[in-house]
Amino acid sequence: QPQLVESGGGLVQPGGSLTLSCAASGFTAPGLTLGVYTLSWFRQAPGKEREAVSCTTGGGIPTNYADSVRGRFTISRDNDKNMVYLQMNSLKPEDTAVYYCAARFLRRSNYVRDQNYWGEGTLVTVSS
Question: Quick check: 82 and 4 in contact, CB under 8 A?
């Protein structure tokens, strides 16, 4: 059974950096290996709906970013290691949220309902 596990969250001061990691496992069915999935990062701030942050298709290109994080966040993936990362720089208090890793078969989508698999999330708190 496919599984996603996030790590790397924590408390960071405004302006600081943090790298989130997502370890994927169980994507072993013929024709359904990790490389055919778009991997995304979503986040959910307290009292708000879950929103798409960034995504990367199977080949790692193209990537997509929410306007609020473009230029500050960088997504990357390593299919050999079954990992996807989110490098977050110049963090702001409004980046505080639980960050989730998600996988969708083939094409990307910013919609929560379209994702096939989810991790449990990792909390990022940006505060002084």
Answer: no
